[in-house]
């Protein structure tokens, strides 16, 4: 009787009603805006060069390296002899790019390229995909099956002397990679798994260990693609097929927020701008039905958003320190 009266009292006061649960797929959503109109086939790999204040990015299927100046709103392009999987700066006028048969150096003033590290030339059905430099300036770059179905890819670590070490194998679509501010954890995505995996990272040796799952990406959201990390060690992930960038807490696995993008296939993102408070977003114009092409007419363009949190400086190849932590 006492419990029944208490229940009636609670109902009359509105104090015992169950709390409404937020839909995690629609919480904290903002909109990206068009930054640069271009119809990239498979825009990918954005990297903010904090020295020159330019955005490096690639069009994999278009076989182009892009260097975009957001102040002048100009975009320089460098044709490549094969698909280009990723780019990282390696000095004032030099960068590393992953091409069909290995890692090349390119002079961004003269456009001259030269082979730096031969890799996977014996695997014609593979190509390179995403990559980034760790806090010590070593390049981590992954490969993938051209058909996107077989686990024939791998993740490699390229040391400054050009030595390549296979760190992971049996990869299907190697994608986003990032390191925490304390230089103790590395996050990595193999897209078909719908997981962001964490590894203990040894800064001195470059070794990784203790693989575990940090985030299970909901099937309804889409496929996780390229990734950036912010100053709070939260992860920003481009969602292929999900027309958004999603922010995850790798400590809890929780989806925190989304940035909706007017392109179906969102491939990656990078923090840039003078204060590293602008998130630049790459997209693709491929792999869409006619209806989807009509729904997303500017797919393939560069987009941006100001999410309210800053990113961090990304490490250049062969150049540890300089505040570059991730």
Can you name the CATH architecture? 6 Propeller
Q: Rough shape?
A: globular
The largest β sheet comes out as: 5 strands, mixed
**Rg from Cα:** 21 Å
Bin the helical content: under 10%
What distance lies between the first and last C-alpha atoms, to the nearest angstrom? 61 Å
Assembly state (oligomeric): single chain
User: What is the highest CATH level, the class?
Assistant: Mainly Beta
Q: For the largest sheet, list the strands in their spatial order.
A: 1-22-21-20-19
CATH fold group: Neuraminidase
* Beta-strand content: over 45%
The count of DSSP E runs of length 2 or more, i.e. the number of strands, is: 25
Structural write-up:
The protein is mainly beta and 326 residues long. It has one domain: Neuraminidase. It is 6% helix and 48% strand. The chain contains two helices and 25 strands. The chain has a five-stranded mixed β-sheet with strand order 1-22-21-20-19, with no helix packed on it. The chain has a four-stranded antiparallel β-sheet with strand order 2-25-24-23, with no helix packed on it. A hairpin with a 5-residue loop joins strand 11 and strand 12. The N and C termini lie far apart (61 Å).
């Amino acid at each position: 009787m006492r419990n029944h009266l208490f229940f009636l009292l609670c109902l009359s006061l509105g104090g015992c009603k169950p709390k409404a649960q937020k839909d995690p797929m629609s919480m904290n959503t903002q909109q990206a805006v068009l930054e640069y109109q271009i119809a990239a086939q498979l825009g990918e790999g954005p990297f903010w060069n904090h020295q020159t204040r330019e955005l490096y990015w690639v069009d994999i299927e278009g076989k182009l390296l892009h260097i975009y100046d957001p102040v002048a709103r100009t975009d320089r392009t460098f044709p490549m002899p094969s698909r280009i999987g990723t780019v990282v700066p390696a000095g004032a006028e030099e960068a590393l790019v992953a091409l069909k048969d290995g890692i090349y150096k390119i002079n961004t003033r003269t456009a001259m390229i030269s082979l730096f590290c031969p890799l996977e030339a014996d695997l014609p059905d593979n190509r390179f995909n995403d990559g980034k430099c760790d806090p010590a300036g070593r390049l981590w770059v992954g490969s993938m099956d051209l058909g996107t179905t077989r686990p024939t890819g791998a993740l490699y670590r390229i040391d400054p002397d050009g030595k390549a070490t296979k760190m992971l194998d049996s990869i299907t679509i190697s994608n986003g990679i990032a390191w925490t501010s304390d230089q103790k954890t590395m996050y990595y995505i193999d897209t078909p798994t719908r997981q962001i995996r964490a590894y203990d990272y040894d800064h001195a040796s470059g070794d990784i260990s203790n693989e575990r799952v940090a985030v299970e990406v909901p099937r309804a959201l889409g496929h996780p693609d390229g990734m950036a990390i912010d100053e709070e060690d939260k992860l920003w992930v481009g969602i292929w097929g999900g027309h958004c960038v999603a922010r995850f807490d790798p400590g809890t696995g929780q989806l925190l927020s989304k940035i909706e993008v007017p392109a179906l296939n969102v491939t990656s993102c990078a923090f840039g701008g003078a204060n590293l408070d602008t998130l630049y977003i790459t997209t693709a114009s491929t792999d869409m039905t006619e209806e989807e092409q009509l729904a997303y007419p500017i797919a393939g363009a560069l987009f941006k958003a100001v999410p309210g949190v800053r990113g961090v400086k990304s490490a250049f190849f062969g150049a540890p320190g300089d505040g570059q932590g991730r």
